[in-house]
Design brief:
The protein is an alpha/beta fold. 25% of the residues lie in helices and 29% in strands. Strands 13-12-11-14-15-17-16 form a seven-stranded mixed β-sheet, sandwiched between helices. Helix 1 crosses helix 8. The radius of gyration is 22 Å and the shape is globular.
Length: 353
């Protein structure tokens, strides 16, 4: 077996792996922190980069901390439990800014301070676990090998109680969504405290005195319901009929919800609104906006767009298109919806140029 390679970690890539350079090649090493001196062993090598496993930490960062989870390093769910929480926030904010500059080619990125989660652990109100051949848990880091999980420290006590009950039963192989409360068959935020912070950030972006709010990819009406009293008209668009059914059931008298794809329905909805007094909220899936949606927004020239994203790379791509056209970027606010993981939520506020 070849001797371990000594490296100095210079950065953390989006996804959670440390970045180091050695003999002209970039190395990606999980469970490291910028500034650390480590020894690694290559597991996969390509022409310009290599992936490596951490053998030892030879000079630790002062931000290194003891993971709370006994499965950390094997389970693929968390990437940052070895990093003190304030440093996690710094890393995530830096990744957002770097991604918007590199992928979106944005010269000016008006970053706002990252918003921390109220809870660092025990925040998830639901998890998806796998059951295979008597093993209940999550997939291992970088593979589909199962890790048997008795308790997940980032899940709430109620969710862990559900996990305990599932483990005590004889169930068929498959995926199981465990939740501390009854939920509908559509997307809902998984961190209640951070969801409240997200509402606060979005609410702080919305202009006063607007007449219409169009909530695209509205789900069950998370944003639309919350901000409805600030607008004369609220229109939500969502392709999941179960989510629309729930949104209609909870709607106020000046709220309406439409089933269908945003690329299909947005061109029907925006002509009903006065562009100068219309705010649009976008909360698309990780794949970001369809090109047709971008074209519709550029043509409509609404007063402002608030784009909520769980994927900085697709956000950067979409901002590049919108900010080359009718809009200018007013602010970018990371919200830490998923502490201990490499994921980050971002709110980007655009105004008509």
């Amino acid at each position: 077996m070849p001797a371990p390679i000594p490296l100095t970690v210079s950065d953390i890539a989006f996804g959670g792996k440390g970045v180091a350079r050695h003999e002209g090649k970039v190395f990606f090493v999980p469970f490291t922190i910028p500034g650390e001196q480590v020894s690694v062993r290559t597991v996969r090598s390509r022409k310009s980069f290599s992936e490596a496993d951490l053998v030892s930490v030879d000079l630790a960062s002062p931000d290194r901390t003891e993971p709370l989870c006994a499965y950390f390093g094997r389970c693929g769910g968390c990437a940052y439990q070895h990093i003190a929480y304030p440093r996690q926030l710094e890393i995530k904010a830096s990744q957002v800014e770097q991604t918007l500059r590199r992928v979106g080619k944005l010269d000016q990125v008006p970053m706002k301070p990252v918003v921390p989660s109220r809870k660092e652990y025990h925040y998830r109100n639901r998890i998806r676990v796998h059951v295979e051949r008597g093993v209940t848990g999550f997939y291992a880091q970088g593979s589909h090998e199962m890790v048997d999980i008795a308790e997940c420290p980032i899940a709430s006590p109620e969710v862990n109680a559900e996990l305990g009950r599932l483990r005590s039963e004889s169930v068929a192989d498959g995926d199981y969504v465990l939740s501390g409360r009854e939920r509908g068959p559509f997307f809902e935020q998984t961190n209640d405290g951070a969801a409240e912070a997200l509402l606060s950030v979005v609410g702080g972006c919305l202009k006063e005195g607007q007449l219409s709010l169009v909530d695209a990819y509205c789900g069950g009406g998370f944003f639309a319901h919350h901000f409805a009293d600030r607008f004369a008209r609220v229109i939500g668009i969502e392709e999941n009929p179960h989510a629309i059914e729930y949104a209609i059931r909870c709607a106020g008298p000046h709220e309406s919800y439409i089933t269908g794809g945003v690329a299909e329905r947005l061109s029907e909805v925006l002509p009903l609104c006065q562009p100068a007094s219309t705010s649009v909220i976008l909360d698309p899936p990780a794949a970001g906006l369809e090109p047709r949606v971008t074209d519709i927004l550029l043509g409509a020239a609404v007063s402002e767009i608030i784009y909520v994203s769980c994927n900085p790379a697709t956000l950067a791509r979409d901002l590049a298109s919108l900010c080359r056209g009718a809009y200018s970027l007013a602010s970018v606010t990371p919200v830490d919806m998923f502490p201990q993981t490499s994921e980050i939520e971002v709110v980007a506020h655009m105004r008509l140029s």
